[in-house]
Design a protein that fits this description.
Oligomer: single chain
Largest sheet: 8 strands, mixed
Number of strands: 16
Strand order of the largest sheet: 1-5-6-11-10-9-7-8
Strand content: 15-25%
CATH class of the largest domain: Alpha Beta
Number of domains: 2
Structural class: alpha+beta
CATH topology of the largest domain: BirA Bifunctional Protein, domain 2
Radius of gyration: 28 Å
């Protein structure tokens, strides 16, 4: 089991404060708008397709991923964050959603619900991978699972939900690369054929692919080493060796994708990197032109996993799902010139005050404005009117309300137009209605 160790090439903490661990990142207030917009679009589409939200624990028993994801996968062998409790329980931070969701499906008897059971999740995952642009050790994924149906229509539904979300987000230049990796009926014969090819080219394989040749030969298609990719490109493809049932399932999937006009390409090199996949597998790729060089970047992918529930101790339960990387998707949208923008959070009114009594009145006025849904900014730590109005200028608020000692006594407030500097005196009781009226006028102009 992989245990993270200190990395000598990471920047040490600065004097007086700490840095986030390598590969972990903060999502700052100015970035939250994009995330809010992303969540809103995804949740709306999920609701329209009948997917209910599920939240599984960040920590699961280690066996959930060793058995579910696969003990021989890179995720478990190299990237899993694991720990032991004082009571001796072996736990792991979730590196993906699917095994935990199927564990919850079995534990809570969701099989009794109408078929198929549609679930989605959005949250943080953890993998000890090499940090790079768009790839973190704590990252977020959007996940959809359609459980307890073996119909090819569910495979298509999962791809179509993904397609709809990416279109609603405004993503350009993306497509689905689709294949099938068969099932236990036809895969063994194909694996024998593949092993023969790999043995003939064993000297050209990397150490990992040589080690996995006998137990997991399909992993060669996932390897990022160029020499292994050259061997994989000329290897026999399972898509050409499907049994009749898998071939029929895949044919139905493609025909329904054609009916929905979802752009896709057949790609026999796609196998996905996890043990539980059967039949349909796919990846979402986006192309970009970087300095004259066209590159393809994976945003996520998924497929069918009919044997996972049984591996985790349940009844055989067919299922299909997809996962998308949120950080990478948000970054690519920005690079394409279409950044996600959330709801406006710019303050509409600034309240300035002079003196303790004025501060109390300002608090009352702030509460009334906020109750009415008006965004308010203040600077209660400042006593200078000039510095407070400068703060209002920097925030670009259209209106300011000013309360001094005289206004407290007379129960009035000064309404200032920050654009032209004009002011008028209004009663404290009428201030709220006047602010609403002025904001409505500004919105129309």
């Amino acid at each position: 089991m992989f245990t993270p160790v200190p990395e000598t090439n990471e920047a040490p903490p600065q004097k007086g404060y700490y840095l986030a661990p390598s590969g972990m990142h903060d999502i700052l207030p100015e970035q939250q708008g994009a995330w809010l917009k992303f969540r809103a679009i995804c949740e709306k589409e999920a609701t329209q397709f009948g997917y209910g939200r599920i939240e599984t624990p960040v920590l699961e028993f280690l066996k959930v991923f060793e058995k579910g994801t696969g003990a021989g996968t890179d995720v478990v062998e190299k990237e899993l964050y694991s720990l032991s409790t004082k009571g001796g329980e072996a736990l792991a931070l979730r590196p993906e959603f699917t095994p935990g969701i199927i564990r919850a499906y079995l534990e809570h008897g969701l099989a009794s619900q109408p078929r198929p059971v549609r679930l989605f999740a959005l949250g943080p995952l953890f993998r000890h991978d090499r940090p790079q642009k768009g790839r973190f050790r704590q990252f977020h994924q959007l996940d959809f699972e359609c459980i307890n149906s073996d119909s090819a229509a569910c495979d298509v539904e999962i791809i179509f939900v993904t397609f709809r979300i990416l279109k609603k987000l405004g993503l350009k230049n993306f497509s689905f690369h689709v294949s099938s990796i068969g099932d236990p009926a036809c895969r063994p014969a194909y694996e024998r054929q593949l092993k023969g090819h790999l043995r003939a080219h064993k000297s050209k394989l990397c150490g990992d692919c040589k080690r996995r040749l006998e137990k997991n030969p399909l992993r060669v298609f996932d390897c990022k080493e160029e020499k292994c990719q050259r061997v994989a490109r000329v290897a026999p493809k399972i898509i050409d060796n499907l049994c009749e049932a898998c071939h029929r399932h895949f044919k139905e999937t493609l025909e329904m994708l054609d009916e929905l006009e979802v752009p896709y390409q057949l790609n026999g090199n796609i196998v996905r990197g996890l043990d539980y996949y059967t039949r349909t597998v796919f990846e979402v790729l986006v192309t970009s032109d970087q300095a004259g060089e066209v590159k393809s970047l994976a945003l996520g992918g998924g497929g069918r996993y009919d044997g996972l529930a049984e591996v985790l101790g349940g009844r055989p339960t067919p299922a299909v799902g997809v996962a998308l990387g949120v950080e990478r998707l948000i970054d690519i949208l920005a690079e394409q010139g279409n950044p996600l923008k959330g709801p406006v959070t710019t303050p509409q009114v600034f309240i300035a005050q002079l003196g303790f009594l004025a501060k109390k009145k300002a608090l009352r006025l702030m509460a009334d404005l906020q109750t009415s849904g008006i965004l308010v900014a203040t600077a209660f730590d400042r006593d200078s009117l000039k510095s407070q109005l400068k703060a209002a200028d920097r925030l670009k608020v259209p209106l300011a309300l000013i309360i001094g000692q005289r206004e407290v006594i007379e129960e009035t407030v000064i309404l200032r137009d920050m654009a032209d500097g004009t002011q008028e005196m209004v009663s404290f009781k009428k201030a709220l209605d006047l602010v609403k009226k002025r904001l409505a006028q500004l919105k129309k102009s």
